[in-house]
Amino acid sequence: MAIFVSAQPANDNRPASFDQAMLAYLPSLANLAKKLRPTASRQDREDLVQATLCKAFETWRSYRTDKSPYTWLRFIMRSQSRDDLERRQKAADFKLRLPGVSVTITEPNQEHAADLALVADQIAPDLREDMLDMAAGALLAEPAARRGITRERARQMFERERERLASLARRADTRRDVVCGRAA
What we know:
The chain is an all-alpha fold. Helix content is about 65%, strand content about 0%. It contains 9 helices and no strands. The protein has helices at about 15-25, 25-35, 40-60, 70-95, 110-120, 125-135, 140-145, 150-170, 175-180.
C-alpha cells in the first residue's frame, strides 16, 4: 500500500512526529478496513485507509494527546466508511430503473444530451419543468406548492405521465422512434 506523505512540514505547522505516529498505525488501519469492508476490493480498502489518514492530517489539531491515537483513527475510519457507503447508496438510488430494460452506463456525450432533450420534449408541456426538477432531486412538495395542490395529487399526475412515457417507449421500435415521437 502506497501512502504519500510529504517530508516537508504541513502548511498548518503540523509536527512531523504526528505524521510518523499516525503512519505507525497503517497495518492496523488496513486490518480495520478489511473488517469494515469485507467484500470491497483491495483498492477500495486502500482508498479508505488513505482517506482516513488524509482526514487525520487535516484535523490533527482535534487530536487529544491524552487519548489513544488508534481509537481516534478508528473513529475517523468508521465515520469515513459510513459516509462513503451513504454517498454510494444515494448515487444508486438515482440510477434509472425501467422494468424489463437493461441499462448500461456509459460516459455522457453530445448524442446522449441531444437524445435527452428530445425525450424531455415528449413530456407533457405543463409537467415538463416539474418532472425535470424532480429528476434532479426536488421533492414532491415543491411542484405541489407551485401548483396549489396536494403532494398526493402531484404524485398521481407525475405517475400518470411516467406511465404514458413508458407506454410510448414500449411501442417504439427503436430509441429514435421514441425521441422523434414516431411510436404514437
